[in-house]
Amino acid sequence: MVRAIPKLRVRAVNPAALNPDGTHVLHWMIAHRRTRHNFALQHALFHAERLQKPLVVLEPLRVGYRWASDRMHRFVLEGMAVNARRFAKAGVTYLPYVEDRPGAGSGLLAALAQDACLVTTDDYPCFFLPRMIASAGRQLPVRLEAVDANGVIPLQATDHAFPTAHSFRRWFQRNAAEQLSPGGRPLVNPLARWTARRPSAALKRTLRELRERWPMAAKLDDEASLD
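RESULT FIELD:
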């Protein structure tokens, strides 16, 4: 059974309600692109298990952003290959989407979220991701929760920045026990605790239609190429 994560790590992006009658829980993987030691994935699995719904993971790769490069994208593609194997083994529907031109993936997230119970994503405070998450929250018809899986200490654990390493060490020494307790640490492999659930006929039909409009990466392996 997948356990709940600390509440400090979860942030509601929009005021929309959770839809218990949806066909699936959707995890939008945009920063913490890993299946292990991942609070965001653990949170998605927890809700899917609680609601008794299948989990769908969308891992998109945009191409139209500043600093996009073959080197960066090769790194992401190799990670997708690992994720594809691990999600397949765990019975999780995994959608690795790689844009073939800037903006080609526009509308994919909203389409996947249309019949979802809940959408979870990574709460990453840098790059263009905060703006993208906020924009998605305004558009999605269902609750969007951003999850902090950035480090040992939750971003919301303090209400100020530490001006010196010394001041941070003093704070950490007073609060480390709580943050490093078993409940404060992510599961090593949350997929190992997950009980897979088969997609309904309605979800299968939706996924088939979406794959026709937004073809997923056809080949992902350790020799994945950008050619």
